Amino acid sequence: MSSRARYVLAENARVDAVVAALTGNDPETAGRLLVEGHRGLRDEFEVSGPELDAAVEAAIAAPGCYGARMTGGGFAGCAIALVDRTQVDAFGSTFRPAYTARTGRRAVLHICAASDGTSITTLDLATS
User: Fold this and answer.
1) Tens-place pLDDT, residues 18-66
2) DSSP class of residue 78?
3) 125 within a domain of the structure (yes/no)
4) 82: which strand partners?
5) Could you tell me the CA-to-CA distances from 9 to 15, 64, 117 in Å, in that order?
6) CA-only gyration radius of the chain, Å
7) What is the CATH number of the domain that holds 33?
8) Domain tally, the chain
9) What is the pTM of this model?
């Protein structure tokens, strides 16, 4: 089996495990799984790059970060980090200069919160 196929199978299991961890209020486990997913993308699927690796490394070293990984596509994607909401300011203050020191680039952070996601809405298109 190729390393990419191994990654896909492991990542499918990780997604389910992250859902269970977040549902069970276990951010430490969810964070560890995010980092494992990033390492798999980097080492097995071979789609990361120096800037994404630097972003993940800087994130997981910053206060309040449970874990991080690249997302969105390698070689030009972005990284996500699971951060304790009470530590967001400290995370940003530490992450930004650490990323810049590693890459020479300015970090851009988008702070967001989880939401319910998508849902199905039934439209009544019948006319009266």
Assistant:
1) 999 999 999 999 999 999 999 999 999 988 889 999 999 999 999 999 9
2) E
3) no
4) 67
5) 10, 30, 24
6) 17
7) 3.30.70.890
8) 1
9) 0.86
